[in-house]
Fold these 4 entries.
Entry 1:
Amino acid sequence: MAVLAVMVSYLIGSIPVGYLLGRARGVDIRQHGSGNIGTTNVWRNLGPVAGAIALTGDAGKGLVAVLLGRYLGGHGLELACGLAAIAGHSWPVFLGFRGGKIIATGLGVFLGLTPAAALLALGLWVVVVAAFRYVSLGSIVAAVSMPLWMLLLHRPREYLAFALVVAVIAVYKHIPNIRRLLAGTESKIR
């Protein structure tokens, strides 16, 4: 049952919400803006309503996967299912393994695992984006902060390890953004 739950979680994570929103409007979101299927690119190119739907859908994928794992097997399986959803969002089978940068799906996963940590990271994201106007910088800082929140909230070691793995994936997926931030060419929000 555990293997099936992880596979289902990967497939849930692979549902390309942003891509489907674009297709519903006759747009391939991968051909616009940053080319990413995630919330920020959807927001910038399809508007705030579509962006909010993408955020909710992508976060929902992560939350559903964690809840599935918890229901079927407890903490170990909820972590595995959460990671599978993140992998599905990042490398979706339905889009040739080219997906999003995991921030919204990761938010949903952490809301399911440790809501307080997710809300602390979200608050930090808001502060960084408000101060510097870079969504990518806020996303990176929020992801990298997650292991700290796990420590401060005295979560089990496996949650800390999980948060470290997710932070590494998030930074990896943001390498092009990091290069643009360092070069001063990253897009700011208005």
Note: The chain has one domain: 2-183.
Entry 2:
Amino acid sequence: MKIIAVIPARYASTRFPAKLMQDLGGKTVILKTYEAAINTQLFDDVFVVTDSDLIYDEIVSNGGKAIRSIKAHESGSDRIAEAVENLDVDIVINVQGDEPFIDAAPLAKVIEVFRNDTTKQVDLASLMREITDEAEINNPNNVKVVVDQNGFALYFSRSVIPYPREKNVGVRYMQHIGIYAFRKQALLDFYSLPMKSLEASEKLEQLRYLEFGKRIKMVETSHVGIGIDTPEDLEKARKML
């Protein structure tokens, strides 16, 4: 089973323009992330996929592998699908380009799902963590997920799910952590399918997979990624080096 990591890397960013090209300990954020993915030793190959000449040149000039994204895309899955369409690969892991402090443990968890899935019942695997703070639960930027008894996702939402009409019934609230592992065919199917109303309403691409019958296996973790979304995040990251 051939497993690769793909790091989608857009130059433009609403909250922090050009954040991936910012300096972090003498290297750019995107190069740090790329090298961290390689250093996990979990992947047969690692690629950055980008629509930016600057990012492409940054990776290639430092001996890395990059793929130019030719088409305009509405989601990360679309961008990754275009990149891997002609690659010989079985499983694709989506690594966030703005998380240079990659923890190998949660990535290994989603990979293990596919190693154990001998009957190929799983199309995607992803992570979730329990949240108990009311503000976190109610925050629409924290995507919640509910799963069935076998750990397969039933629905993702920015709203509070399940709604707590009855208290003290043992409900756990689970936040979706945006690390994905895909079977290549699931990615290619996504690429060819139209956006439907649920995805359009919630602005959550994972709902397209569910709407078209794909099975997403969720794995619980305590992992919280350290992303660089603002200049303040970058300063915190610099202090961690």
Note: The longest strand covers residues 173-183.
Entry 3:
Amino acid sequence: MGKLLIIADLEGEKIAVPRGLEIADKLGLDTDVIAIVYAPLGKVAKDAAGRDAIKKRLLDERENAVQSQVDKHYSSGQRVKVHVYWEKDFVARVNKLCGRHEYQMVVKTGHRTESFAHASSDWLLLRECPAPLLILAENKWRRTAPVMAAVDLGTNVSQKKKLNMRVLTEAKALAEGMGEELEIICAVEVPVLLHELDLVDPISYVKQAKQDMAGHISELSQRLGIPEKAFHVKRGPVEKVIASRAAAKRAQIVVMGTVGRKGVKARLIGNTAEKVLEHLKTDVLALKP
């Protein structure tokens, strides 16, 4: 049986535990719930014994609070373990745990108001976490339904093709496990510069792109057992097409790939998954190649 890792919320509506347990129950996964505690104690207590006592009290209080939340939301028969860590850098802790255990996904409440350029925890986990990362929406659409996969069907890059397959495979399994329909969206973005210089006709460009994808869609349909009618190709910027389609269908989870750039290049260029997160009001499962 696989495992799922939930990062318990420290504040706010605390949606990670109930949503994570719901998904784990539907997919038949064991669950580890981790809670992070940290506070600088140097000025609070001068001696080590005093600091240790405060630290223990904070850890115990946090464990009791998270365990109470688990007890409230878990289903009968679910196997759930709560772990509390004294940790300043919780992203490093999560990455370490994922390196030790083969989690099928990590569940975390997203903070969409944070700027990814300022290296938020979401930003760091999208790039560094070795496991699939499910970022939950705090302000979610009501009455959500299908699972949606966002792919680049026009790519000729082998790494992106492999990522497409992984996204489709994971999304199909997730939809089946949760008893929901699967929707697949692909954006065709007309190059802005070519359009502005009248070097391409947008309508003809998109029409040709759709024709080029038709054979690939048919092949994927047969190979993965996904109906061709589940595939949808729309014109526009990737992040806006995905967000628009997800909103129209009230998708409960959007599954997509993320390239996981690092360093200055990542800060300047950003990432499609991050741009989508800024537009969506639903959960996003980000997968790496």
Note: The chain has two domains: 3-109, 147-287.
Entry 4:
Amino acid sequence: MNVGAYIKPYRFTFVLVFLMGVISTIITAAQPLMGKFLIDEVLIEKRYSFPVVLSICVLIMMIGFGVALLTKFLYLRMSLRLMVDMRSAFYNHLLHLPFSFFTKNRTGDILSRINEDLTEIQRLYTENVLQLFTISLTFLLNILLLFMLDWRLTFLSFLFMPLLIFGIHKFRHLIFTNQMELRRQSAKNQSFMYETFSSVGFIRTSHLESTLQETFKKELKEINRQNIKVIFIQAWAQGIPQMLIMISAILMLWFLGSRVINGTMTIGTMLAFITYQASLYGTVQGLAQLYIRLQKGKASIYRVNDFFNIPQEEDGESLTPPSFQAIHFRDVSFAFENSRPIVDGFNISIRKGEKLGLVGENGIGKSTIAQLLARIYQPASGAIYMDDKDVQSFSKKSWYETVCLVAHNHPVWFGTVREFLQLGKKGLSEIEMLNVLEIVGLNNWLQSLPQRLQTVIGEKGITLSAGQKQRLLLARALLNDADIFILDEATCHLDVESEYHLFRTLKEYFAQKTVIVITHRYDNLDWMDRVINLSGGEEQYSQKKAGGMTNDNVSILHG
């Protein structure tokens, strides 16, 4: 993930934040010197007016406070915008990955990388970089000012530095590996919650509440144990520097106090030196904490790059032709990874405007054929052609304007009826929505609702029956006005009579369209030009007889 590309649009803000950070750091670093001057030159020697000097010091500190506040505001605004850009890009990348990616990865793990890991990366490249710059500048200023006060004592202050750096470095690998494990466990838990909350009905009817509660509790305990382990390691990584800083500060205070008593150092100089030394050690501790956060960020980078390095599915560049003669499957085969072929050497031609029915037993490959034509899957071998052109050469945007798939497992999302129908469509009129709802037989249902199109249908259409969901999905599909419609068990939740009446209406609407109906039952297929059984047998092509459909007058196609 090239974070620099996302920071580039904000480079001027980034530079401004850095410059303001320099001003704020310098003003903060100057405060102990102002204190020394106030004590030694004003209060003790009485060389300058106390009210005047105090007023100047207060004014400088107020300026520093204002600059720091503005810096935080600019940083926060830039940081939030950067996060939007990074998450949007990652989300867009995920949407364009091969469909097989989503069959191999759990939803909770994907969400964890979008939310938690990207946030950690954003902090690493903005907040941590800014802090690294500020702390490094403070470190250098502290050394410079300490040398100005007493160069011999400054060298003495460096006595514990090698031990600090060595101790921090030793914890590097431990923090990284344990942070990776914590991220993995957190992602697993998010997947568990997503799966359970999306299956509440199944859980209740299966009396799984107690079992799942125990599983959830067990996972939380594992996460807690790993959290404690990570915090314990971080505490040691931070505690060792703190202990060394404390020992050094006590020794230095004892030594400087002795010099003040002997009259070889002023009180102001002692206080300034102790303050700068504490600040110096504080910057070292700050660098140690940044180093720890670097390991956490490094773990997140690894996790995000795991997905970002997966190449997006290739897309064609051509536009689908405004007219075509036929769709051809030529020796098309498909299989999931490490599985037997679901579709093997499949051949068929579908004429423009033809109504084709595909039937067969479960698992024979009916839905796979639909998803191959809809380009959700890509053939392992062979190809699908529109006339003489491979459909993979068309851009997906253009192809999905030509082909519309309505599957039995497509979701109905949370929102109103209007919002669901308008999803992805601009300038859709209310009359158009009401027309398609009437075609699919939902007009009476809609008129019975007080809020009509503004009715909230709930997450996954929970307020609708299974048949109503399918009718609503069909209504949304009709608004696409595609040339080719694929209905994959799109009416399986309707009874035979309801399906019959729906097909009678759709027959008129689909008069000039190419329609492929995939089903496991033969009822209500008498409006098809051909019906093909994929369950085996020798390849035969024959027109069906007029009237009702029976198993005797169905063409048998061997894949």
Note: DSSP finds 18 helices and ten strands in the chain.
